[in-house]
DNA sequence: CTGTTAGCGCTTTCAC
DNA sequence: GTGAAAGCGCTAACAG
């Protein structure tokens, strides 16, 4: 005979109070650490709670206090290291402020994002950190209208007034442009992201604005945009290759984009030919040092963005101001010259 | 003057009932889709709910029904693509079953895992999917004792009887051993994971059990273990290099481990020497095709494991049996011969 | 400082 | 089929 499953009901605060020999309210006061309580009842309640393995019922607490101490974090692609790094840092920071993070992954899909916004609303999260896809959906409009404290991460949406914590894209692209000039590249293929995503638009705009002063060709045949995912970027890279405009360097506008571009280059040109093309990227990935030639990159400080975002939304929840912030980038030059 | 923040209180089911001109209970019955309701009240309640933008209060619902429709997913390293892939698939599957997933990241740290178990308990999740670090902590013991439906993902803990959904490590390592023999490697450095993690122990055991029949050296100086993270693996690789035992191939026991090992090889031996060593890995990473030479790998079906895990815990919640499952691996041979 | 009590929003009896 | 009412576990307001 197997041992019985003795599934005991979780202890409630009532059990704790009874065991400690105090009233319900006193137990609550001790356990919430709020008002004054005598050292005696404090000790007895704590002891009773420990003996019973008491863990407060979150939903009941949330219902009564009308707050959950939960933050929603909706990222656009959890498999993108930028976001998994960000999510990790945000969780840590949230925990330090007494919040739990509900992490959701929209997978660069607006419908999934809407579904999660709905879930968050029903969970009654206290605040939302959001890296949106693109335009404002009815669901998002409702979320904003509800007055839920909201900050954007790395991406914004036209017409929604919320603080944004993200990368200084102008600086990052500037670093890439400087590097391209230093390396003497004139014909550069630019593989961007969707213009509907602010990050995509900003990086493209900064590139367009600066390329001429940096001696880079303005041939529009070298400009393409994917979807910020590897497959879409590979297709974009192929479209440039199809045009037959020659180039000596490729600039990928985020990590997955660069991955897709490199894949396409190697498939279409073969490994040897592809190795004659220098690649530079926004986002620094683990393997860039192993590529041939090594890939230089703008490193975004995903962790700092996550931390700042949490602090921002915590400020909003507390009724304080939050003004958003652009986080500086660093450039990792892996070109042969830089290695000497 | 800025526009006023009109933060309207969220509509409650009481508001919906009033607007529809029915009693509270009727509105509830319609919205929960449970009992019989007349077509008339059904229509009016639904209309009222839509007009008010009603979204049910999850905590209140949870309190009353004594269930949350939330699953906890505790992974050991969200930045590891294996887990981010798994988490994504699990979320999708959970949604299909009417559950929301609370995703937490223990970062290969037992204390953080305990903290999240506590949070999950207070949130009153309905079930837990867990990729544990190692041994059984008091917190985990309490979780198990509470009778919470639990399944393990890819890793188990000695002495805890819960179904496990994970990779068929024996098969995967067998594929590596076959490949090593085919490639004619005799001196192979094995960089494993902690023996306290079942995955680490299993892969190591399978390797030890099979290496002799596959003509591989049994020199213990070639065996080392890291922590399943890149830095720890790099140190492990360096320890092997320090011993001066020559080898022609390296076997990394998971993705981050292989990353760290390759980094160490290139730093210590230089790029050219390192390129003489063939590398093979459990976990197939994006960049393995770009490495020189390309890295062959056992591909784990993380998505399938995530889906099966969700189905397993959903079965447990429903009081059904769940027996766990080993998911087959596929081997991706990127050696020069295979490319022809 | 502590006991008592109302009530958060919802589901689910129990009558009718 | 529907209305009324109890109560899930907790916090906070109010007396004492």
- Work out the helix count of chain A: 12
Low-confidence stretches of chain A: none
Mean pLDDT of chain A: 93
- Tell me the series of helices and strands of chain A, N- to C-terminal: HHHHEHEHEHEEHEHEHEHEEHEE
* Biggest interface, residues from each chain: A-B, 53 and 53 residues
In short:
The structure is a homodimer of 340-residue chains. The first copy, chain A, is α/β, with parallel strands linked by helices and 340 residues long.
Structural summary, described in words:
The structure is a homodimer of 340-residue chains. With 340 residues, the first copy, chain A, is of the alpha/beta class. Among the domains of chain A are: 1-64, 434 Repressor (Amino-terminal Domain) (Orthogonal Bundle); 169-301 and 331-339, Rossmann fold (3-Layer(aba) Sandwich), CATH 3.40.50.2300. Chain A is built from twelve helices and twelve strands. The first copy, chain A, has a six-stranded parallel sheet with strand order 2-1-3-4-5-11, with helices on both faces. In chain A, helix 5 links the parallel strand 1 and strand 2 (100-105). Chains A and B meet through helix 4, helix 5, strand 2, helix 6 and helix 11 of A and helix 4, helix 5, strand 2, helix 6 and helix 11 of B. The structure holds a DNA duplex (16 and 16 nucleotides).
Outline the secondary-structure elements.
The structure is a homodimer of 340-residue chains.
Chain A: H1 13-20, H2 24-32, H3 39-52, H4 58-65, E1 70-75, H5 81-96, E2 100-105, H6 110-123, E3 127-130, H7 138-145, E4 150-153, E5 164-167, H8 169-182, E6 188-192, H9 198-211, E7 223-225, H10 230-243, E8 249-252, H11 255-274, E9 278-282, E10 296-299, H12 302-317, E11 325-327, E12 330-332
Parallel strand pairs in A: 1-2, 1-3, 3-4, 4-5, 5-11, 6-7, 6-8, 8-9, 9-10
Antiparallel strand pairs in A: 10-12
Helix pairs in contact in A: 1-2, 1-3, 2-3, 5-12, 8-9, 10-11
The first copy, chain A, binds a DNA duplex (16 and 16 nucleotides) through residues 12-14, 22-26, 28-29, 32, 34-38, 41, 56-57, 59-66.
